[in-house]
Design brief:
This protein is α+β, with helices and mostly antiparallel strands. It folds into 2 domains: 93 residues, no CATH class; 130 residues, Immunoglobulin-like, CATH 2.60.40. It is 41% helix and 24% strand. The protein has 5 helices and 10 strands. A 5-stranded mixed beta sheet has the order 3-2-1-5-8. It has a 5-stranded mixed beta sheet with strand order 4-10-9-6-7. Helix 2 runs antiparallel to helix 3. Bound molecules: copper (II) ion.
Length: 239
Amino acid sequence: MVLLWFSSIQRWLWPPATSTFAADIDALFLMIASVVGLWLAATLAVLEWLLWKANRRRRGGGLFAAEAREIRWIVVAAVGVFVSDLAIEVRGQRLWEQLVSAAPPNALAIRVEARQFAWTVLHPGPDGELGTTDDIELQNELHVPVDQTVEVRLRSRDVVHSFFLPTVRLKQDVLPGTEVRRWFVPTEVGTFPIACAELCGFGHYRMGGRLVVHSASDYQQWLFSAAGSELSTPEAGAQ
Ligand SMILES: [Cu+2]
């Protein structure tokens, strides 16, 4: 019942989920919120009940003595919290391992470089290789085909930023001096926000962009028009 109520709230309040692992992250979030929420309610209820009891007895004098009965309650609660924690840990660990694992070999590699206060996105051109002359560089725009594994290679030119795709449920710190790789599979065609989720300076608030997810054929069209007509030879353009 509580879960049902929660999931309808979630659909209403949260951004749409547009990647293969977004639903798993939402489920984990819901699990943590439920477990913590239940413990909070239980703790407050016990506290209220003890206050009410102590007030009725009108016994002053500070803390109760730790009798065996009370110690038993403390141990039961501690074991309960530990088991809940363990359940979150087990579930979270599996998801985490999947999220930070290396991208599958067929992934489309895209370089995203952060700076104060914009994202420079380098897409591979029609040759599919990053770092060649037909690469497509855009400011604050990331173009990807739907249902294709995308690997973002994140770099920073100055300070720590955080690459945030809310609908993909991907948020990764971007650090100067190193490259961090993360991957995702977009599952919905459309335009979705990109944000910086790390306070990175005075213009942090305007460090946004858009993630454009194309259908496979639209992506090919975009690729060739963006790369310029001189590069789209008939041979390369053949599907
Ligand atoms: Cu930033």
